[in-house]
Amino acid sequence: MDKNTWVGFLLIAAIIVGFTMLNRPSKEQLAERQRVQDSIKLARMAELEAQRISDSLQYVAGNATQTETISEEQQQAHMQAAYGTFAQAAQGEEQWVTLENEHLRLTLSTLGGRIQRAELPEYHASGDSVNPLCLFRADESTFGFTLITANNRILQTSNLYFTPVETAQKNKAILRLKTASPDAWLDFVYELSNSYMVHLSLEPHNMQSELAQNINSLELQWRQLIPQQEQGRKFEERYARLQYMLVGGDMEELSESKDDSEKESARVKWIGYKDQFFSTVLIADDAFSSSQFSSTLQSRHSGYIKQYTTHTSVPFDLTGKTYTGFRFYLGPNHYHTLKAYDKDLARDERLHLNKLVPLGWKIVSWINTALVIPMFDLFTSWGLHIGIVILLMTLVIKLIILPFVFVSYKSSAKMRVLRPQIDAINEKYPAEKMQERQAATMQLYQQAGVSPMSGCLPMLFQFPVLMAMFWFLPTAIELRGKSLLWADDLSTYDAVFQWGFNLPLIGDHLSLFCLLMTVCNIAYTYITMQSQATDPNMKFMKYMMYAMPLMFLFIFNDYAAGLSYYYLVSLFITILQTMIFRWSLDDEKMLREMEENKKKKAGKPKSGFMQRLEQMQREQQRMARENAKANMRR
After folding, report:
1. Alpha carbon of 626 to those of 397, 429, 430, 620, 621: distances in Å?
2. Whether 491 contacts 334, CB under 8 Å
């Protein structure tokens, strides 16, 4: 081999070695991989241990039932072998402890030491005006930790019985997991605040000899079924999703439209099980690590929307010098309520729970937080009916975008007035001379002082505001349960006709506000078409303009009645504006003004834009002629 070949081999070897060195995992990455592997191994061991314990208990129960010869000492021996130091906690009678304030009522179960039931007295499920709304109950939610005993027994706290301990504080409950030693126990301490937040602290006492010495973290398992709370299941499914925030503030979420799962190696600050209007959020005082999340859609007739599951780990100090702490948020997805938990906190300590409320893309979200929500808060603080609040918001928004709408309408009116001259240009230059036709048309627009873009740009300014309302109203919990005219609940559809089976596109009902909005939209389209210059050769486009409102009927039929009401009022005001604009603008006067502009600009040199445009057109014509000559030679 020559010298170049050797050099090539050496370079390839250097690249391979360098690539290997650069991509070699760090110590932190290796530790995280080992943690994940240990978590998987521990979960498998927990499953095998649970099966072994179950088989042992079934054996004891079977012998006691069939032969009744097994002694109490033998039963205790079997329990001791299965549960080790927690043998006395393996049997018991389930009891309940209640914590409540004006916002939240919690039922704690001694079986597993968990929150068994969470109710919101201020709210009710759709169709139930008597009972308080229940986020979850009984077996709809499971929550527990994996414990490894000193004799290598792997147990789940969800299967053990805790003992209530009396406390002097009203909104505090202590559930104690006892061991064989009278001086060793593990306390689950719940403290309910004055809002929707409850704190859980895991406090071990003399557990060094009862649990495995190498424990520095606990595996956490959390599963919850999300019951259907709203009339419109379609939208509840759309807004229900599992969201979590990484340490540092980045938000992640699982798909809302299909079964989804995710493994997260980064540290997680909180995990949110979200419904359309309510959430259960688990917040770590420190952080979660080695997390696995899953979201599963539930069948339509099950009464549930989704099932969320989390497997993760949390730090645990066996000595009890540092407690493992959590907070549960169990409440509404109300923007100000969630944002208030970040008050007076440093920037890097903020929870950003308000991101559970979907407010649209970045610019749309900014408009919602800077304009729409403050305006909504102002009008509702006056004690006005929600229908009046939406009407006032519509009027304010219309006043804000009024200059843009007027510019757009005036541009359309000028184009309509110039229509005869444009038709004359089209007759002068046939379709084969499209470039000459476009140049003449642009020259006419420039001389008359008309910009075709002036009719489009105002619409671009209006679009973010319209989208802000599109995102805000269906997710505003303030509309939930509020009635207007025939609509009992503005947060869901206002069905006036229901036929009990699904039809393609429209579903099983017809919403009246949506129907009225469609009629009003067709009327507005008719008025707009009458006031605009249209090409008689483009009849298909005219039909498409009327087809769009009909499409909105099918699109918005399932949307919140409050949103359809807003669009209805907005369209009605727009029609009034259009009539006023038409009355205030004189076509003959505009034509005279444009003719005067043409005379003034007749002797003036063309603008740089027009010169460049004409130069481009001449260049295109030259290239077209050369291509034609080349084709003829062939």
Report:
1. 55, 21, 21, 10, 9
2. no
Sign of CA dihedral 542, 546, 549, 550: negative
Q: What is the mean pLDDT of the chain?
A: 82
pLDDT beyond 90 at 130: no
- Strand ranges (E), 112-216: 114-120, 133-136, 141-148, 154-156, 163-165, 172-178, 185-192, 197-205
Backbone angles phi, psi at 468, to 5 degrees: -60, -45
Residue from 291, 288, 241, 221 nearest 263 by CA: 291
Which structure tokens are listed for 616? 């481009």
Residue 216 near residue 226 (C-beta atoms within 8 A): no
**Residues 133-169: pLDDT tens digits?**
999 998 899 999 999 988 888 899 999 999 999 988 8
Residue 539 has pLDDT above 50, yes or no: yes
Tallying the residues shown for the chain, one arrives at 634
CB distance 118 to 135 below 8 Å: yes
**DSSP letters of 66-101?**
HT----HHHHHHHHHHHHGGGGGGSS----EEEEE-
Tokens 């834009």 locate to 609
Handedness of CA 190, 193, 198, 203 (dihedral sign): negative
Edge-to-edge strand order for the sheet containing 114-120?
A: 96-100, 105-109, 114-120, 133-136
CA distance 43 to 221: 10
pLDDT category, 554, cuts 50, 70, 90? confident
Cα(432)–Cα(214) distance, rounded to whole angstroms? Answer: 85
Alpha carbon separation from 208 to 81, 213, 215, 324, 546 (Å, rounded) = 20, 6, 10, 16, 76
The runs of H, that is alpha helices, within 277-367 are: 335-339, 362-367
Question: If DSSP codes are grouped into helix, strand and coil, which group holds residue 422?
Answer: helix
Is residue 221 within 8 Å of 304, Cβ to Cβ?
Answer: no
Within the chain, what is the greatest distance between any pair of CA atoms?
119
Q: Which helix (H) or strand (E) holds 273?
A: strand 268-274
CA-based radius of gyration for the chain: 35
* Contact residues for 297 (Cβ-Cβ < 8 A; gap 6+): 237, 258, 259, 305, 306
Half-sphere exposure of 332 (CA within 13 A, CB side): 20
Provide the pLDDT for residue 606. 56
Q: Output phi, psi for 486, to 5 deg.
A: -85, -10
pLDDT of residue 132: 93
DSSP state at residue 111: B
Contact (CB, 8 A) for 197 and 280: no
Structural element, H or E, at residue 502: strand 495-503
pTM listed for this prediction: 0.79
Task: Give the span between the Cα atoms of 457 and 168, in whole angstroms.
Answer: 66
